Amino acid sequence: MLDQSPSLDLVFHALADPSRRVIVERLIDGPASVSELARPLPMSLAGVMQHVQVLEASGLVRSEKVGRVRTCRIEPSTLRDAERWIAERRTEWARRLDRLGEFLSPDPKESS
Amino acid sequence: MLDQSPSLDLVFHALADPSRRVIVERLIDGPASVSELARPLPMSLAGVMQHVQVLEASGLVRSEKVGRVRTCRIEPSTLRDAERWIAERRTEWARRLDRLGEFLSPDPKESS
DNA sequence: GCAATGGTTAAGTAGATACTTGACTTAAGG
DNA sequence: CCTTAAGTCAAGTATCTACTTAACCATTGC
User: Fold this and answer.
1) Are B90 and A24 a contacting pair, CB within 8 Å?
2) Is the four-CA dihedral A9, B79, A84, A4 of positive or negative sign?
3) How far is residue B88's CA from residue B46's CA, in Å, rounded to a whole number?
4) Is A108 helix (H, G, I), strand (E, B) or coil?
5) How far is CA B47 from CA B42, B52, B65, in A?
6) d(Cα A16, Cα A22) in Å, to the nearest integer?
7) Chain A residues contacting B, CB < 8 Å?
8) Which of the residues A11, A83, A103 would you substitute to probe the B interface, choosing the one with the greatest number of B C-beta atoms within 10 Å?
9) Which residues on chain A are in Cβ contact (under 8 Å) with B16?
10) Residue nearest D22, CA–C1′ metric
11) How many helices and strands (H and E) does chain B possess?
12) Tens-place pLDDT, residues A18-69
């Protein structure tokens, strides 16, 4: 497997799992403990912990432990990195289409 | 009803692989055959075919075969679906922060 | 102190993933 | 017709993934 941008790999991989997206959506509304994140999910706490670890490895989530409670919060800059990757490709695609359109039927207003 | 926008699971999973992102980036610049897509990738043609199938299953790529060559092209609407999912979460996150900010230090201009 | 709560670690497992090779099919092109 | 290019199909395999259970550790609250 190529390894050209490990972080995007991890971010998209993290987002590819529905349970992890549920966690992300919960954290959008504010920080939460692991057991709070676990509540709506049909799996063991240990399973949720593993999802949190995947999210944290991707940079989408940060967490810190105070007392016996680990509080997780979202890291929006990582979310933006992923969004930007997609947006840049879409933009480039549209730009190419424009160039192609001009070539196929030149706009009189644009030509001298 | 047709499953017109296949699940985000498949889209994000497709984007999580660097070889597949290379394929997507190539297709942004216009349609290409499978062996053209394969050229920069250090793997067998059959391996590339499998990546193309994953991309097609996700809705990110469409392809059609003419003669003996299969031509692949990108499907930007699927790319946009993924982008939108992220953008909506980021926006919601920012909105929440605003509300929180107002609550913590009310802006005199906004209060009666 | 002790029970309950919240989390962590380790080990196991079924199924998915990312490849491979090799045997085929189809279709250009000379 | 024969060769080569492009792709397809099937099978095999090593590794990864998404869980599980069970034992364990660390705080909190009575």
Assistant:
1) no
2) positive
3) 37
4) coil
5) 10, 9, 18
6) 11
7) 1-5, 8-9, 12-13, 15-18, 21, 24-25, 28-30, 74, 76, 79-80, 82-83, 86-87, 89-90, 92-94, 96
8) A83
9) 8-9, 12-13, 16
10) A46
11) 5, 3
12) 999 999 999 999 999 999 999 999 999 999 999 999 999 999 999 999 999 9
Q: What is the pLDDT of residues B85-108, one digit of tens each?
A: 999 999 999 999 989 886 666 655
pTM of this prediction? 0.90
- B47 vs B31: CA distance, rounded Å: 19
* B92–A28 CB contact, under 8 Å: yes
Predicted confidence at residue A2, as pLDDT, reads: 47
For chain B, list residues whose CB is within 8 angstroms of any CB belonging to chain A. Answer: 8-9, 12-13, 15-19, 21-22, 24-25, 28-30, 41-42, 74, 76, 79-80, 82-83, 86-87, 89-90, 92-94, 96
Partner-chain contact A30 B90, CB within 8 Å: no
Question: Which pairs count as long-range contacts for B1-9, CB under 8 Å and 24+ apart, including other chains?
Answer: B5/B59, B5/B77, B5/B78, B5/B81, B6/B57, B6/B58, B6/B59, B6/B78, B8/A15, B8/A16, B8/A18, B8/A21, B8/B81, B8/B82, B8/B85, B9/A16, B9/A17, B9/A18
Instruction: Name which of A16, A28, A83 is nearest B12 (Cβ-Cβ).
Output: A16
Please enumerate in sequence order all residues whose Cβ is within 8 A of that of B27, keeping only pairs 6 or more positions apart, or say none. B37, B61, B72, B73, B74
